[in-house]
Amino acid sequence: MLDELVAQADLPPPVSAMPKVGRGFDNEISTVVLAGGRRVVLRRFPQPRAPEWPRARFLEQHGLPAPALLAANERGSVIEFVDGDLLGDLIEAGRDTAGVWRMVGAAYRRVHAVGFPAGLAAEELAADRFVLTPVDPVEQLHRLIDNARPGLHQLLPDCVDYLSDVHALVDDAATALRTAASAFGHGDINMWNVLITPEQAVLIDWDHPRVADPAMEIALLDKHASLFNETGLPAAFFTGYGQPPPEPNTSLHRLVQTLEWATSSDWAEFESDVALPTELKHRVRGWLPILVDYLRELPTHVDRLRTLTGTPRQA
């Protein structure tokens, strides 16, 4: 397959390939050295899928910070090699400077600048087509809160009563939620899906882009950053992003996303997944306590959101 893709791109023949492991990739990822020394990245898919060309052209036409697609078929693709450091690795090494975070914010600013009509969204956009549907974010958030109730009763039973407050906050923010602009989003938020070069941040693994309120993606970024640094997005991110997080939408999405994930079945599935590398499984075990600690502060989050939404305290 590699020979076929390299020939499709009219590239020199491959000399060696080094698999990349330990980062929870959905696809088989290898760094390939071609004759003459040029490096490219081979992505091999577990199941056949539509070639990525339409999506790659969309990314290129909008000048989004993504590696160039060089060749593709139903089984895999070859993309441009970006020489940089993964953001997650920089955070863990204490090298995520303010300059790094400004570049990350600037990258997401470019992505979210690709706008769509308000009220339309897509949970995931296919490689060869974008299908948008009308959505009601208020109904979506209410459903997620209700779904989290059984799991929260297991994790933090003393916090269950606060879910009625969260429902009220969603209702009071209904206008802001329903009128928020829709925008393109990366979709697969992960500190390992951002490469930092000396010049810019580049977003990789564009398999799950979406269209939604940008506040939803900012909230996801904050949540996933907290799994690495326990504090979330620093102020430098928003300097690069060019504006503060849109409120109350960002804080509402942040709270409900954490409720949803912490109370989900993902954690039991991670434990039972024999294919998950030991190093990654150990890392994942440390994430749930961080999410639970966030939810322990549910009264504080509710009070802050009352200020943002103007929701009166319930008797």
Question: Any key phrases for this structure?
Answer:
single chain; 315 residues; alpha+beta; Phosphorylase Kinase, domain 1; Aminoglycoside 3'-phosphotransferase, Chain: A, domain 2; five-stranded antiparallel sheet; three-stranded antiparallel sheet; 14 helices; 13 strands; globular
What does this entry show, briefly?
The chain is of the alpha+beta class. It has two domains: 2-81, Phosphorylase Kinase, domain 1 (2-Layer Sandwich), CATH 3.30.200.20; 86-309, Aminoglycoside 3'-phosphotransferase, Chain: A, domain 2. It has helices at 2-8, 53-61, 87-92, 98-112, 137-155, 163-172, 174-179, 214-229, 235-241, 249-262, 266-272, 278-285, 287-296, 298-309; strands spanning 14-20, 28-34, 39-44, 69-72, 76-80, 85-86, 115-116, 120-121, 133-134, 182-185, 194-196, 201-203, 210-212.
What do you see in this structure?
With 315 residues, the chain is of the alpha+beta class. It has 2 domains: 2-81, Phosphorylase Kinase, domain 1; 86-309, Aminoglycoside phosphotransferase (APH), C-terminal lobe (Aminoglycoside 3'-phosphotransferase, Chain: A, domain 2, Alpha-Beta Complex), CATH 3.90.1200.10. It is 46% helix and 16% strand. The chain has helices spanning 2-8, 53-61, 87-92, 98-112, 137-155, 163-172, 174-179, 214-229, 235-241, 249-262, 266-272, 278-285, 287-296, 298-309, and strands at residues 14-20, 28-34, 39-44, 69-72, 76-80, 85-86, 115-116, 120-121, 133-134, 182-185, 194-196, 201-203, 210-212. The strands form 4 sheets. The protein has a 5-stranded antiparallel sheet, with helices on one face. A 3-stranded antiparallel sheet has the order 6-11-12. Strands 7-10-13 form a 3-stranded antiparallel sheet. Helix 4 (98-112) crosses helix 9 (235-241) and helix 5 runs antiparallel to helix 6. The longest helix has 19 residues, at 137-155. The protein is globular.
